[in-house]
Structure formats: structure tokens, C-alpha cells
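FYI - complex with adenosine monophosphate, inputs then prediction.
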Amino acid sequence: MHPPILQMGFFTLLFMTVFDTIRELKPALNLYKDKGQSVGFVPTMGALHKGHLSLAEKAAAENETVVVSIFVNPTQFNNADDLEKYPRTLKEDLDLLAGLKGIENRILVYAPQAADIYQDGVVSENFDFDGLENEMEGKFRNGHFDGVGTVVKRFFTMIEPDNAYFGEKDFQQLQIIKKMVAKENLPVKIISCPVYREASGLAMSSRNKRLNKNQLDAAPLIYTVLKQVKNDFGVKSAAEISAWVSRQFENNPELVLEYFEIADEETLKSLQTEKLPNTDYRAFIAVFAGDVRLIDTISLSE
Ligand code: AMP
């Protein structure tokens, strides 16, 4: 079933064109490609916020046209309840993109149904990301990165973007996409974008829409903790810092720590004792607020 807003296949909204099939998107893209103009790509799962918009703006600054995909990808959800509850706000998403004044006429939105991407069944390819998939999120979200790799590879093959934009908020995902592109020799440049935050410090996330008032008030603690970690890194040991982080969430009525790690940005291997020379480290955290799972990260090198 197509959402009513897309029943016409494609349509133009305040100069921004929306497509629900690659068959219709491709000729529109080719108008740019045939002139030698570059295509930037921003994959999203919708429920857009300013973090997503910052990616679209960067893409528009660096490319003649930008494809923003809006697709809640079923294969990357390890939890059926999370998939079902994931916010879907297509009308608001399109309004936000149409509001990007000055660039909205260069944005092509691709909001497909699953059948357009998974013609041969909603299943994941199995990837070997050289172990990146086994760290952190990989330990807690079985099959998640196979689902991410599957959908992103299909998007890349269908859309053939010159540049693709990914947020550092999902830093492990970013490294995994870079790995996939390198291993499979895909002709696309991966560009990373900084974490966009609320004034409170809370990393913007589509899942924030599911937080109640108490959870929303409590959640900025996550970034407060990360900033203190950055201060203490190099002064205290990784073990001391991890123990301190655990204590910050103990007895918190709203937030439950799932994991905290300090890891090598390239290998994502956890820092055990001695820091390695010429290595950039980063802190990673996952916290539950009720059944809403929030992740965040901070560079410990910059
Ligand atoms: P999602 O819709 O959550 O799949 O995210 C789509 C893209 O937006 C991914 O590359 C995310 O890393 C990126 N993104 C999500 N939240 C933020 C944020 N707060 N700041 C920057 N990028 C973000």
C-alpha cells in the first residue's frame, strides 16, 4: 500500500520533487548526470530533524543535486517492536525539506515502498566488515549491520551518487559503510558529518520523538557524561572512566546504561590499558530511556 501522499508515483511540492520508485527517479537524476553534474545522496529513515537537514545542506553545498531517501529499512531492525514504533512522519518530512530555501529545487526525495528495493524478498546480504560489525552495536543488535549494508549498497547501485553523506552520530555505521565501499570498490565518496545537537546537548535523533517529558529532561545527561569523559581521557585510565560512567547512570529513574566504550576509531576495538600511538580514540555510549534506545559519541582526539 502506498501512503496517500505518494499515490501519484511522483509529484512536485514547492519545487521539490518526490518519487516513490527508482524507475521514475532515474530519468530525473540522469538530467543532472548527463550534464556531468554531481549527485549527493543522504539516506535517512525519515522523522527528519535538523541533524538530517544539516546533511542535506552539506550535500547541496557540494553537489548540483541531492537525493534524500526516506525509507524505514526493515532488515536493519533486530527488534520487531522497535520497527513498528519507529516514527513515520512523511508529510512533515517533506515540509521540512521543502523549507530548505534556496536548495529545495535541487532536492529529489526518494520515498519508496519496500518492494522497490527488495524485489526478491526482504532479506539481508551477509557481509564481512573485517570485524567492525562485531563491536558495540553489533553485540547488541544482531544482524543490524547486514541490514544497513544491504540497503545502502542497493541505494548506491540504484542511485549511483558521486558523494554520500553519513552522520558521525552513528559512527560505527559510518565506518562500516566506508569499509563496504572500500572492500567492494563502489564508486562513491563517503563524507562524514558532525553530530547535530539540541541546545540541551542531547544528540538529535528520530527516536527523541518517542521520549516523554521526564525522559527528555533526563537524556541530556548522556552528552554531559561524554564531555566529562573527554576531559578525563588521558588523565584517568579507561577502566576508571568506564566505572565513573556506570556510576552516573546508577539509580537514575529514567536512564539505563547499555554500554559505554572507549575505542579506536579505525578498528572500533575497545581501549584496554595503554593508548596506542598515532591512534584516534572515541567514546561510544548506548542508553535506554524506557524502551527508547539512544546512542551518542564524542571524539577524544580533536
Ligand atoms: P537515520 O534516519 O537515523 O537513519 O539517519 C540518517 C542519517 O542521518 C545517518 O547518516 C545518521 O547518522 C544521520 N544523523 C542522524 N542523527 C544525526 C544528528 N543528530 N547529527 C548528524 N547526523 C545525524
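The two ends are 47 Å apart (CA to CA). The chain has eleven helices and ten strands.
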